[in-house]
Design brief:
Layout lengths: L5 E3 L8 E2 L7 H6 L15 H4 L2 H5 L5 H10 L2 H6 L11 H5 L6 H14 L5 H26 L4 H13 L5
Antiparallel strand pairs: 1-2
The site of one iron/sulfur cluster has 14 residues, from helix 3, helix 6 and helix 7.
């Protein structure tokens, strides 16, 4: 692929956009699915990313960037990306979006397409679901203990979690 095919290097999307690899029908494909109808309304304000709990712990996760990639037609990059499995499906971005883009349901569409096209194995899909259940159990137990006035488990878990990701405890 020659350099002349590079049409954009968006600062909010780190990848070079290459003409030969774009699928400009991707946005329409997303818009045809329930929940994806408003994808073209995004004007890249970034409000969704500002309130996202995943972005809060991982600045590399950026829902605005994912929407831009969809609009640019970066179908393969988006559907093959591990980040589409990080979303908590909490709808916080949807509530805050001035354009009612509904990124949460768009994320569901992306996952549906990724599974349908076997971009993740059934084993990986099941492990991702397990990770969510484990996280829910951990949160429930920690909240119960906090409500009883016990914070030792929370502090220990937080310290271990920070160490695991290389942050300072
Ligand atoms: S808040 Fe809505 S309009 Fe703004 S970047 Fe996010 S999806 Fe786009
Ligand atoms: S639904 Fe996903 S992208 Fe939106 S705020 Fe929640 S975690 Fe972030």
């Amino acid at each position: 692929m020659g350099e002349s095919n590079v049409v954009s290097k968006d600062t909010s999307a780190t990848e070079e956009v290459v003409v030969g690899e774009l699928n400009l029908g991707f946005r329409d494909e997303i818009a045809r699915h329930p929940g994806g109808e408003n994808v073209r309304r995004c004007f890249a304000c970034g409000t969704c990313a500002a309130g996202c709990p995943i972005t809060e712990v991982d600045p590399e996760y950026d829902c605005r960037r994912i929407i831009r990639q969809i609009l640019f037609g970066m179908r393969d990059e988006v559907l093959s990306s591990p980040v589409i499995w990080e979303c908590l499906v909490c709808y916080r971005c949807y509530v805050r979006c001035p354009q009612k883009v509904n990124f949460t349901d768009i994320m569901r569409v992306l996952r549906y397409l990724a599974v349908k096209e076997k971009r993740v194995s059934p084993e990986t899909f099941e492990r991702i679901a397990r990770a969510g259940r484990v996280a829910n159990c951990v949160q429930r137990d920690l909240v119960k203990q906090v409500m009883k006035g016990e914070t030792a488990a929370l502090e220990e878990f937080e310290s271990k979690a920070r160490q695991a990701v290389g942050a300072e405890a």
